[in-house]
Amino acid sequence: MKTVRNVTYELLRRNGINKVFGNPGSNELPFLKNFPKDFEYVLALHEGVALGMADGFAQASGKPALVNLHSAAGTGNAMGALANASNGHSPLIITAGQQNRAMVALEPLLTNTDATTLPKPLVKWSREPASAQEVPHAFSRAIHTATSEAPGPVYLSIPYDDWDKRADESSASLLNRRVKNARSLSSDELAELVQRINTAVNPVLVLGADVDAARANHHAVELAEKLKCPVWAAPSSPRCAFPTRHACFRGMLPAGIASIGRLLSGHDLILVIGAPVFRYHQFEAGPFLPEGSELILISSDQQEAARAPVGDAWIGDIHPILSQLAGHVADRAKAMPDALPAPLPVAASYPLKAESVFDILNSVAPANSIFVNESTSTIPALWQRINIATQGSYYLAAAGGLGFAMPAGVGIQLASPDRQVFVVVGDGSANYSIQALWTAAHYAIPVIFIVMKNGTYGALRWFADVLNATDIPGLNLPDIHFSQLAEGYGVKAFRANTPEQISDAVSRARASGKPALIEVETCWTEQGEKQ
User: Which one of 152, 218, 242, 399 is separated from 175 by 20 to 30 angstroms, measured CA to CA?
Assistant: First the structure.
């Protein structure tokens, strides 16, 4: 007899899913019974860490990831991580165990009441199957919904007694289904876009995370080099879609309406690809576009296209559209832009400045390293100092929710075993998901965690100045010993307060082939979170 469990695991297998990220509870045990030997269960100590690891794995691998949460409480524990995954277009299949189907109406202990509503609006689709026989179909729909454009999390609530029930014979038809995304521009659409780009006198590109997610970075470079135009990263971009040392690159746009308008002034065409228009943060009154500018958005996300306050939008798959544009726009007969000057070296001091730490990391990290950042007050310094040259080399919490970087770094390292992952966190953000250290140690996942310890919430201090808010309580974080916490979770720890000590610690960590944490005393500056 084929059970619902048998068919579901085969469906997952056929769709390239063989890892389950989770922290099991009683409602989830029947799903995990007789766990297949070709699957791996990645245990987290907290559901937010489980979902964060799955988020990182899905983004880095480009494949869907399965997360198993514990009913309503586990879903609640993971909601902050779910906000980041939703904003990051991460294809997650999230399952939560439900009480026995015969008792759900009585709302006993561990019932997920109104389960399909609980994760909204952070999921693309949610479902509690009406019968055990519907479970494989719900999984099939969940997988294809999560991975279709624009990708994103989906949620299934499954009564725990469903798994041993007989599967419907028709479920076999689900195993070989494929859903392909192939929305490129029609010939008329392509001709219109190319004509508008070619007639622009001074165009500019603004690239978002979806370019990197679509693995279309090389097409973005080709397009920029044909246009000989400046390229900006979209405000608060959670990924990097363009080489940061390229002559065309100008940095990351700030997250204010007026500031963006000032920096894009003089460009008659603003071509935004793979980003919302725009992800603002601090309020700055001003026009959405500079005078004399028009905007074109190319997006895979219908919602992002619909809510843009200005400009025309084309909805489709980023990779084929960028390839089409790069292949058809005119190659302009003018010089390339002058590259930005290299940042000036910073004198070593104690405590070290963030710029010094990033200079050291840039010199000792392998060329194809991956940086996962959650030291929010030092984002501008990292973008200036770290050479990000290849696809999938930079990740940030897409919704700004703290607790992303440490578990995501573990998931990214799992998906990218041939690259070194560096997780850079502030002492504020590190406390949100420190349990990720245990998973890294338990599975010998060789992430290097860098804790930038400045004893305060630096980004909040900067934003308090923006708001002209003084005497704010709760911004200092004294007396936290991250090296001791790391060792308690089984991770080798170093304290490094000079360039030489950091370099030595990175070298020893890499040589060990195991995870390590490097605690660095840094000074807080008023540069702040100028995203």
Answer: 152
